[in-house]
Amino acid sequence: MKGKDLLSMADLSSEEIHLLLSDALDMKNDGWLSVLDRKILALVFEKPSLRTRVSFEVAMKQLGGQTIYLSPAEVGMGKREPVADVARVLCRYVNVIAARTFSHETVKTLAEYADVPVINALSDLEHPCQALADLLTIMEKKGELKGVNVAYIGDGNNVANSLMLGCALTGVNFRIASPKGYSVPENILQMAEEFATENQASIFCTEKPAEAAKGADVVYTDVWTSMGQEAETEIRRKVFAGYQVNQELLNLAKEDVIFMHPLPAHHGEEVSEEVLSSRHSVVFDQAENRLHAQKALLAEMLGGLDIFLHRHK
Question: What is the pTM of this model?
Answer without folding.
Answer: 0.95
